[in-house]
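Hey, sorry to bother you again with one of my protein questions. I've been staring at a protein lately and its backbone has me curious. I owe you a coffee for this, so here goes:
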Amino acid sequence: MIGESVGFVRAVRVAGPGREFLPTAEPVDVVIVGGRIADIAPTGNLRPTGFVIEGDGGWLLPGLWDHHVHVLQWALAADRVPLGEVASARDAAVVMGAAPVSGGRRIGSGFRDGLWSDAPSLELLDATTGGVPTYLINADVHSVWMNTAAFFREGFPSTPSGMLVEEDAFEISRRLNAVEPTAADEAVERMARAAATRGVVGLVDLDMTWNDEPWQRRAARGFDAVRVAYGTYPQHLDRAIAEGLRTGDPVRGGAGDLIRVGPLKAITDGSLGTRTAACAHHYPGEVGNHGLLTVPPDELVDMMTRATAAGLECAIHAIGDVANAHALDAYARTGAVGTIEHAQLVAHADIPRFARLGVAASVQPEHALDDRDMTDAIWAEQSAQPYPLRALADSGANLRFGSDAPVAPLDPWAAIASAVFRTRDGREAWQPHQRVDIDTAIAASTAGGSTAPAEISPGAPADLVIVGIDPHTADERALRSMPVLTTLLAGRVTHGV
């Protein structure tokens, strides 16, 4: 069935955007022609044509998007030592000391040291890992803990903590991700096909590299699992402008339009876990530490002005409230089009500015639950609103959901569940006043986001997903484990049972 072009979907209940325009809540049939929805009618009123998908009363939604993925890093995470459950620096060091060696090094990822009772140190990691270069990538990717052998291998001077942060950490990740192209492309293909099993039809790739070249290569290989919009980073902005890259254009050399140029991505501050997100109030016990603005405001304005003039939209990483304020100021000054990525701590006065400026909030609802304990501890004295989903939605801002994989797994149903219920694992809802309703969460998980969602309607692309449970009646656990029966990309089956 995979790869089959579908002409007819029988007996599905429309549960996503577009259902409000249908005359019935009963099952309908959907005709697909040329990769688009041609007609919708109550079951039994249309003649089946072409290959038929039996919906069996399942629920039909627009195909889902993840609006923030580090594609190759997520694809490679499957082969790295998982550290998400380690509870201390000592435990992490012991786990890595026992980890297998691959390619002459050990690589682990996913640790969260914000609430550890002990601190990472070079001495501690050296004691368990010896002379094998060893790397532990923070879940937020903004820091890397390394042993002496890894510092020597990478040519960096060692630090007493063994930690590198921000741009130094990003450079280490880039080096670790620089695998042989064929192996990289095969890993990305597997990752994308796995995403299709969760109803994903598209993603925004924000890998921290020159992404145009690998996506040209993947297009030439026939990559067709999901739609892709890929980002460009400031260090490559001159090259992107010189080579004529414009947001929305198909990748050069591609046979179709599945892979397109995306935005300019700029990282303007750090992260909560690394205590480098730029905030109005200092971090507990660190008077004077308000985080880092990694791009000065005037430089950000200049960068966004040049990108906009060249036809590139912008995706501006801003986590702390100070960084969000500067990013919004830059949008106001430049007239740029695009998103703020993360928007994890936003001053109350800045929340309405997203809608007024037409800036989409590209947010990751799972991060709110990953970080709830750190937020309550580390940002307890901040006056801005953490993870303001409902406040942004109520102000009219366009929400676009993503995972930031590998920071959180690429699974839109996890994001939807976190946004709607603000809990998991049986805990009480965290900041329940920032929940959003299921319709907003589904819309935010489609191509256009919450205020301009993809719809089930005649003429729309046949990027569709059929699920086995009505998301409107599903509880938190049912949303997270949502059975995805079929995924269609332009009417072609990319996942089916």
